[in-house]
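Note to self: keep these together.
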Amino acid sequence: MENQTGFFEVFHEVGRAVLSVLSVREVTHLVAKRMVPALDLKSSSLLLVKEETGGLAVAASHLVSREFLAAEPMEGDRGISRALEGRPHLEEKAWADRPEHQGGLIRAEGIASILSVPMGLRGKIIGVLRLYTAGERSFSEGELELISALTEIGAIAIENARLFEEKGEALSRLLEKGGVEYEYEPPVEKYRIKAVHPGEIPQDKSYAYFSRLHGLARAVASQVDVERILETAAKTIAEAMDVKGCSLLWLNFETHELELVGTHGLSRAYLNKGTLSMDRSIPRVVQGETVFVPDTGRDTRVQYPEAAGREGIVSILSVPIFVKEKVRGVLRLYSSEPRAYPPEDIELVKALAEIGGIAVLNAKLYEARENDYAFWQSTLRYIGVKNSEHDPA
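Structure:
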């Protein structure tokens, strides 16, 4: 892969995939699988640290034989040892300087180079990603930065999935004590729709746009509180696109309104201008279209043009937020001066909206699971079922 070419598309494609599921098994397999074609590799494996023993175990692999995985040294391997210390390690001639049987296994597998990358989370190494190439290969600093960013997002996704699964398992145990049948199954829906069109980002902007998308993904995916995610997303997107303000609106199909859930850079007076109707406020965005309003004072698609004028808003870019193949919300960027958005900027905004939407939906699912647990814990306690280790014996 040429240095800094296609970074944005690779990060977006892998990031959206691993962040869109809340199952540890699915996340680990997606990380291992999506890395291979994205980075032009032969194969990959993902080793996770076992909390009970501190040792490593293969959590997922892609295009690696069972024989090779069974023979992979979990301890004493140079690459794995370095990665567990927090440093990526490349062996361009992976078979060299090894015991003869290990070198033979690597050659038999058709592997030339091995890159071992740490998966870190809040200063703690939770696993090692092993990337295998068919030919001898070195990686540029830019490529290593991209791979590190992907493993970071993968680690966050694994942690989010673990938290969600633990809460689901706790709910299952709680209801079992109350004689209520409940089988916990984490959601594993995957994307089939692409919010971003491949090839729209010029090669000379790919690295810069990847950096902006990575900044948002890191900021919002590492949180589970809905309000903090919304606040962080609006601020990060506004700064990334250098605009006056940003708002995140969620669709309420019962009231047919756009509910303001997150904002940055807009006055309270403007935010209190009135309710936004899905049918009157730039309506085609709700149908999945991106709409640019160059002059808010002359465009009938703007529901409150006078309020926009008082706020000093000249133009609005409105982008649908796709999550799980559906439009769940709307992202709007407000500019205080005439502004045009080239196609690549619109693609970036669509990607930012999608990643932000995934984080919001995940947080809402986690919040709902916590509320379910609290409700059933209170209900069972009320009817006399001791359902917690904190309940008196």
